[in-house]
Design a protein that fits this description.
By secondary structure, this protein is mainly beta. The chain is built from 3 helices and 33 strands. The strands form 8 sheets. Strands 14-15-16-17-21 form a 5-stranded mixed sheet. It has a 4-stranded antiparallel sheet with strand order 1-33-32-31, with no helix packed on it. The chain is globular, with a radius of gyration of 21 Å.
Length: about 450
């Protein structure tokens, strides 16, 4: 029996309502030996594939924010290293994803959009990766009644959840508008609504879907006060893990743990939870002392997860993965008040890098939580509600951190223990806000503003 009530038990955590979907893939070694020549060829092929790897979800493969093998440029402008610029049918804070020869992003139209219709509509947009040509756009009708475009909702609007893809299908979540799946040609495969509740503070939800085996996991924090796993082929509910404390979870869960004990980890007010992604059952939890609402996603390292955020008091905490039940005393490694309110950090070579919403480049030692450096970025002036110049999360490629500000361009920082600002890149022709985390793949970087989708590539000229 636990010594005190926690959010995990107070929330009324329940077992899944249906059985999990079994994994249907296996791997068998093709042989026991390979020649030195084959090894070299395989290594070369692996490097090539890594350089052109997809960016299939929020913050890329496994949500790490790191594009292994990618080599995007560090400088660009309206006339330098800009491959294409494509107008979007509406704004959004969701990030683009790159899948094969296509780029996907979600938008919204209706309330709050100049010249928009009164009825809320959300769209999944598909753009040709090479040319920037719009291939198709598919609409999903919004909910009724619609959350009012007021208070804090204008900070991110109605298209905040980044889509995800398994290479054959694209999965989207639109909050009370529901979850849907499309094939790569834009044919809708299924659409289900998961709940119609609304946050009493009128913030709207934001966490992005995550793929695990044959399921797509949805954080329906506001709409259903639950994490829900759906069969990715049919949309049928596989399990549902409810909890009232989920109402203020805005970060996307991360898959951590081991191959024998996978964990779906997310941060909520005062605690971290780790669910069994096959069943939705709680594996472990730990107190975090991060109060209020939680916006950054959890960052997964080797045997450790890191949580940031909180309001009004910011903080960060490191917790070892594994264990069962309350692991606070046995698995919590460190805590610090050095943190970020909205953007999610990147973990690289034992250091956590983040550009905070206040415009500071912050680096922490991942083993101890101690500050390595904290530098205010020049020209990162305060914009947006509460004076927050950064909303997007940083991403990394080729030894550089890319951090997109809302109105003052993208800051490129060297991923090293010594602060070095490499470049500040602005697209002067676009006066709208850049709220979305960029996507990285091969030699390309994809940026999204409220009006345009951009492809940045070395040597290109629009």
């Amino acid at each position: 029996m636990r010594p005190r009530p926690t959010a995990a038990c107070a929330a009324g955590f329940q077992p899944p309502v249906t059985a999990p979907v079994p994994i249907r893939r296996s791997f068998q070694a093709a042989g026991t030996r390979c020649s030195a020549t084959f090894a070299v060829l395989f290594a070369t092929l692996s490097t090539t594939l890594a350089a052109d790897a997809d960016w299939p979800r929020f913050r890329g493969p496994n949500g790490s924010g790191i594009a292994a093998g990618a080599q995007p440029p560090t400088t660009w402008s309206d006339v330098q290293n800009l491959k294409w610029k494509t107008g979007l049918p509406g704004p959004g804070t969701s990030s683009p994803i790159a899948v094969g020869d296509r780029v996907f992003v979600t938008c919204w139209s209706g309330p709050g959009v100049t010249g928009g219709k009164n009825l809320l509509s959300r769209e999944l947009v598909c753009v040709d990766r090479e040319s920037g040509t719009l291939k198709w756009a598919k609409s999903v009708a919004g909910e009724s009644p619609v959350d009012g475009y007021e208070g804090y909702l204008p900070e991110h609007g109605y298209a905040s959840h980044t889509p995800t893809s398994d290479g054959e299908r694209v999965f989207v979540y639109y909050g009370r508008g529901g979850a849907a799946a499309f094939d790569l040609d834009g044919n809708q495969l299924w659409h289900v609504r998961l709940g119609n509740s609304a946050n009493q503070k009128n913030w709207g939800s934001a966490a992005s879907p995550v793929l695990y085996k044959d399921t797509v996991i949805i954080t329906a924090s506001e709409e259903a006060h639950a994490i829900v796993a759906l069969d990715k082929l049919t949309g049928k509910e596989v399990w549902r893990a409810p909890g009232s404390a989920l109402d203020y979870v805005f970060g996307t869960p991360v898959l951590a743990g081991t191959t024998t004990q996978a964990e779906l980890v997310f941060s909520l007010p005062e605690e971290l939870w780790a669910l069994n992604p096959d069943t939705g059952k709680l594996r472990w939890f730990a107190t975090s002392s991060l109060p209020g609402n939680i916006a950054p996603s959890v960052v997964a390292g080797e045997g450790v997860v890191f949580a940031f955020g909180g309001f009004p008091q910011l903080g960060a905490v490191a917790v070892k993965t594994g264990g069962k039940g309350d692991v606070t005393s046995s698995h919590r490694l460190w805590q610090t008040r050095n943190s970020t309110y909205v953007p999610t950090p990147v973990l690289h070579e034992g250091r956590l890098y983040v550009v905070t919403d206040q415009g500071f480049a912050l680096c922490l030692d991942a083993k101890t939580g101690e500050q390595v450096f904290k530098e205010r970025l020049p020209g990162a002036s305060a914009t947006g509600r509460g004076g927050k110049p950064f909303y997007a999360s940083a991403v990394m490629a080729n030894g550089h951190i890319y951090a997109v500000s809302r109105r003052n361009g993208t800051f490129v920082i060297e991923a090293s223990p010594h602060f070095k600002l490499v470049a500040q890149n602005s697209l002067a022709s676009d006066s709208t806000q850049f709220n979305a985390t960029p996507a990285l793949s091969g030699r390309q970087l994809f940026l999204r503003s409220d009006k345009f989708l951009y492809c940045v590539q070395a040597g290109a000229k629009l």
